[in-house]
Design brief:
Elements (H helix, E strand, L loop, with lengths): L5 E6 L2 E6 L10 H15 L6 E6 L10 H7 L7 H20 L4 E5 L2 E3 L1 H8 L2 E5 L3 E3 L10 H7 L5 H10 L3 E2 H7 L4 E3 L4 H13 L3 H15 L3 H16 L2 H11 L12
Parallel strand pairs: 2-3, 3-4, 4-6, 5-7, 6-9
Antiparallel strand pairs: 1-2, 7-8
């Protein structure tokens, strides 16, 4: 339904999730987080979908948490502490679900992505931004250090630049975000949807199981020391080589033809 807080549309092997609360700049309210978690859980089991695009309706991608909702939570007997802890735990679980999702997730970003919205971009595997988009972890401007957004941000961009953003609350534009590694591509706003879809379709054209294996190994090896990472990824590649569809891909390459993959079964 058009008035749902989160929309899903599937076209072939690409699923698109649209944050759909533009009146609140697509804030990550409790309802939005719950809706996102439910869709991510469903996508994790969906063998037909090979790529996920995350975009937003309205003039902004995401302005972070719903501050009005957080302010209202302070009326609880404990001053809101239990509610705040539950909110940030729920948000962290959703962010980690993006990382653990078998399919690559591409953020399609426009307008602004601030605080937990910037965290969302940093958490996605890839990001395409429209020219003029601004990114910030600006909670410090209202006395709330962006500690949870910091986790994803510091895994995307250099430490000193991340700390400057966190302590000054200053925004960076799309070009600097690309230079820092927060986004992959910056495109004219009118081309944002088509450029993101082109990237999604390119990835979706690859062998689905190989991409799923690779995404998981990508994050696993990043948490290991060098020797452990090589040992682990060697085993992953050996297992990948045992697949019949991988053998078909290699034979097709050697024979200079297109692989005859059955992408409907994985």
């Amino acid at each position: 339904m058009a008035d749902d807080i989160l929309l899903r549309e599937d076209q072939g092997a690409v699923a698109t999730l649209t944050l759909n609360n533009p009146a609140k700049l697509n804030a990550l309210s409790g309802a939005m987080l719950s809706a996102m978690q439910a869709e991510l859980d469903a996508l994790a089991q969906d063998q037909k979908v090979r790529v996920v695009v995350l975009r937003a309706a309205g003039k902004a991608f995401c302005a972070g948490h719903d501050l009005r909702e957080m302010t209202d939570a302070r009326q609880a007997e404990d001053g809101g502490r239990a509610g705040f802890e539950a909110l940030f735990a729920t948000c962290s679980r959703m962010m980690m679900s993006i990382v653990s999702l078998p399919q690559p997730v591409i953020a399609q970003v426009h307008g602004i992505a601030t605080a937990a919205g910037c965290q969302l971009v940093a958490t996605c595997d890839l990001a395409v931004a429209a020219e003029g988009t601004r990114f910030g972890v600006n909670g410090v401007n209202i006395g709330l250090f962006c500690s949870t957004p910091m986790v994803a941000l510091t895994r995307n961009i250099p430490a000193k630049r991340a700390f400057e953003m966190l302590t000054t609350g200053d925004f960076v534009d799309a070009d600097e975000a690309r230079a820092l590694g927060l986004v992959n591509r910056v495109v004219p706003e009118g081309d944002l949807g088509s450029e993101t879809q082109a990237l999604a379709l390119k990835i979706a054209s690859k062998l689905g199981p190989a991409v799923r294996i690779g995404k998981r190994a990508f994050y696993e090896q990043a948490a290991m020391d060098l020797g452990e990472a090589y040992s682990h990824t060697g085993q992953v590649m050996a297992a990948n080589m045992m697949r019949d569809d991988t053998a078909e891909g290699i034979e097709a390459f050697l024979e200079k033809r297109k692989p005859a993959w059955n992408q409907t079964t994985e």
